[in-house]
């Protein structure tokens, strides 16, 4: 190469030189992302954790990131303090999730976990602090050394899908299936108000990588057991509508009659939201220990997370929960009173 050409090339360089990589995600400082990438590159044995009462996003983001790390050559272990619902057994590596992860790790990652308490007993017995957290909960205080938190992401799985490339991790078909399950379940099948063009663009990427949308949709979200459907029947038969609140209760007796052995309301609350005349849907579910699980769902503009917080719970603006003392009928009165007050404060409620 002649000096002249070299010189000409240099002169042109300001316009052709690669610009510094744009931040992959406006919510996460590029320096944090770069530090996370370095930590991952250095790690050999990785432990991934997710929250108690795991949902599709917990399992999907956990397995998705873990399988990407494994495809990048890392040794990976998956842990959750609670059993994984049978629904997600179809996901690759789901059977590997344990409540007692063996050995020592040089990187610990928490997924979809708003606070350390939500890790249950796993959070108490950690051999080292949590290095990395990937999450989309507004209430996450940033307990990890490096916190990759994007409240605008409709699911943690969506955030993981977005960050794979900037973190230097591959998107395989297995990774795509797990992340797609997380996205579909946390958005209730692309129905929640936080679904964006980015959610769909990342979904496109996952489908392009080989994940089947109809198959994952059906298995992770739509199909349910006969017992769960029967439990719905008991709840639906007692459903009430007042002041733009639709609600029902599920008793231990219902569970017994339905032969339902799962936890909670079998997602019935998400179906109550289809009642047009309501702004808030809620379910109170009686538990074995005498406490009552409350789940709220709200239309955009109402914040049930703060409502849940007054009962010692938490969640998102549109979907939140709490566990409160029983008995069921007293819990129902207290919760309805507080929910009516929220609607009244927002100028809603009253005429149906
Ligand atoms: Mn989530």
What would you give as the CATH superfamily of the largest domain?
inorganic pyrophosphatase (n-terminal core)
Count of discrete domains: 2
Shape: globular
Broad structural category: alpha/beta
Largest sheet: 6 strands, mixed
Number of helices: 13
**pLDDT < 50 runs, ≥5 residues:** 1-23
How far is the N terminus from the C terminus?
80 Å
C-alpha-based Rg, rounded: 23 Å
The percent range for strand residues is 15-25%
What portion of residues is helical? 25-40%
Structure commentary:
Helix 3 runs parallel beside helix 5, helix 5 packs antiparallel against helix 6 and helix 9 packs across helix 10. The protein has two domains: 202 residues, inorganic pyrophosphatase (n-terminal core), CATH 3.90.1640.10; 120 residues, Roll (Diaminopimelate Epimerase, Chain A, domain 1), CATH 3.10.310. The radius of gyration is 23 Å and the shape is globular. The protein is built from 13 helices and eleven strands. The chain is α/β, with parallel strands linked by helices. The strands form two sheets. Strands 6-7-8-9-11-10 form a six-stranded mixed β-sheet, with helices on both faces. It has a five-stranded parallel β-sheet with strand order 2-1-3-4-5. Manganese (II) ion (MN) binds next to loops.
